[in-house]
Amino acid sequence: MDGSKAMDTSRDESDWQQEEETGKQDGEPGVSRVVEQSRRVRSDLEGLMSAVFEARTEWESQLRERLVARPYVGLATAAGIGYVLGAGISPGLIRTVFGLGTRVGLAVMMRRLAAPVTEMVVGRTP
After folding, report:
1. d(CA 78, CA 73)
2. Are residues 126 and 115 in contact, defined by beta-carbon separation less than 8 angstroms?
3. Most buried in the list 35, 51, 61, 83, measured by CB within 10 Å?
4. Helix or strand or coil: residue 123?
5. Which of 115, 117, 68 is nearest to 126 (CA)?
6. Angle CA(14)–CA(30)–CA(19) in degrees, nearest 5?
7. pLDDT at residue 67 in the model
């Protein structure tokens, strides 16, 4: 964050704190409730961000371990992704493969969801 953004942020926070103090002095229950909810939202957001960063760090370490163990697989994967992103495959083929993949995924999911119902109705597993 550069200096001007930091100053704007500190001004915004000081303005917010002044408004909070004014709301407390006025005794408005609505303002204090909104301020309290915004604090909770902010703390929840900070918790979410820290969880995301921890997950990213863990994912990166696992990826590094796999790349060290099997470097050629990593190179082949990177080459394949680069080929696809570089328009090496036609958009029509991508749409077809994506459509087929979603249909297969949906069919597998529906089968897993329907298996308990089928078992209850028929009395046996499919």
Report:
1. 9
2. yes
3. 35
4. coil
5. 115
6. 15
7. 84
DSSP conformation class of 86: T
| SS3 assignment, position 11 | helix
- Give CA torsion, residues 63, 101, 52, 36, to 10 deg: 180
Q: 119: which residues sit within 8 A by CB, 6+ positions away? A: 125, 126
Q: What is the pLDDT of residue 93?
A: 81
Read off the amino acid at residue 33.
R
Alpha-carbon gap, residue 126 to 50, rounded angstroms: 44
Reported as a single tens digit per residue, the pLDDT across 15-24 is 555 555 554 5
Exposed (0-12), middle (13-18) or buried (19+): which is 82, by Cβ within 10 Å? exposed
Q: Is a pLDDT exceeding 70 seen at residue 53?
A: yes
